[in-house]
Amino acid sequence: MDTTKGDALENNVGFWKRIGRRITGIPLLAWILGILAAALVEQWVGYEFAELIGLPKIPVLFGALIVLKKKVWMQSPMMIPSTMLYVFSVYILVIGVVARVLAAPANRAAGGLMKMPLWISVLIHLGIFYTALHIWSDISAYRVITLKLTLIAIMVTLSLNVINGYMGEFSCSHPGFMALGAYAASAVTLIFFTNDRLFGAAVLPASLGPFVFPLALIIGGLVAAIGALVVAIPSFRTRGDYLAIISLAFMFIVKSVIENLEVVGGPRGMGSQPNYADLPTVFVWTVLCIWVINNFVRSILGKALNAVRDDEMAAEAMTVNTRKTKMVAFMFSAFWAGVAGGLFAHVIRFVNPGTFGIQKLAEVLAMVYFGGLNSVYGSILGAVSLNLLGEMLRPLEIFKWIIIPVMLILVMIYRPTGLIAFKDLDVKKLIRPR
After folding, report:
1. CA–CA distance, 179 with 255 (Å, rounded to integer)
2. Measured by CB atoms within 10 angstroms of the end CB, which terminus of the chain is less buried, N or C?
3. Is the pTM of the predicted complex or chain greater than 0.85?
C-alpha cells in the first residue's frame, strides 16, 4: 500500500512538473497575444455569451463581484456556475489555447526581435499588452478606474520599496509625499487651465492643458522630493528606528498643514481637476517609473544602497558616501511618490487630506511587504494582487478586512521577505525566446 501511495505521489509530482515545463516553455510574447485574444473575444461575443449562459451582463472584474454577493447566493445561485463558466471560457481557456498554439511562432518572432535594438522589442511587447488592457477596460468605466488605480499603486509600491527594501530602512512618509504631489500638480492644472472656485479664472487656454500636464506631474514630484529633505536631514543623522518615527510624524504634519490651508480647500479638499489622466497617460508614466527605478536599483548607486542596507559601517569603510546615498535615494523615492499622487488626484478628480492618512500608509506597506522586498517583480505583484483583491472582495464588506490581513499574516510567517523578494527586472531574460 505504501508503494502504491508513493507511486501516486510521484506521478502527481511528475504531472505538475510537466505542466510547469509547458508553461515556462511559452515565451512572453505568446502569453501577451493570448491576453489580447481573450480581450478581443470578450469584446466581440462577450455580451452574447453572457446572455446565453444566463448572466445579465459581462462580469466586470473576473466574476468576483458576482460570486461573492450575498444577494446572488440567496436569490440567483445559478449565476455562480454561469460566472465561473464565463471566466474559464473567455479568459483561462482562450489565453491558454492561444498561448500554446502561438508558442512556436512567437518563439521565432522573439528570436528575430532579439536581433534588433532592445527598445524596439520592448515597445512591441508593451504596445500589444497595452492594446489588450485598453480593449479589456473598454467594457466598463469601472474597469478603467480600477486599472488606473492599480497602475498608480505599482508606482507608489515601487517607490517605497526603494527605501524599505533596497535601503533597508522603514519609512512611513509616502502618503505625505503623495499628498504633496497631488496638491502641487492639482494647483498647477487648476490655476492655469480651469475656472475654479478656489483659484478663479483660468490663466491659459484649456487646450494647452494636456501638453503641460507632464510638467505639472514633474512639479508635483519635485515638491515631494523637497519635502523628503524635511525627513531626511534630521533622520539620517541617527540610526535604527528613528526614521520610522520621524517619517510618520512628517505624514501627520503634511496632513494637518493641508487641513488648515484654506487656499487649497482645507479639510474640504480640492476638486474639479481636469481629466488629463486617461489610461494611456497613466500607463506610460507607470512604464517610465518601472524602467527608471529598475535602472536605478541596478546601477552603481543602487548597489551602494544595498551595501548600506547590509552593513552601513562596512559600506563607509569601502568609501561609500552613505549619507549622500541615502539622501539621493530618499528624494528619488519621494519624487515618484509625488508623481503618483499627481496622477491619483487627476484620476479621482478630487483630493482631500483624509485620503493620505494612516489607511493609505497601511495599504502601501501591505503591498510592499506582500509582494517582496528588494524586488521590482515583487512590487508589481504586491500592488496588482492586493489592489485587485481589495476590489474583488468588496461585496464581503467587513469580512474583506479580515481576509486580507490574515493573508498578510500568513505571508509574513512563511515568507517573511514577501512572495518574490530580491529579484530585479531583467528585460532581456523576460522577452527572450524559450
Report:
1. 8
2. N
3. yes
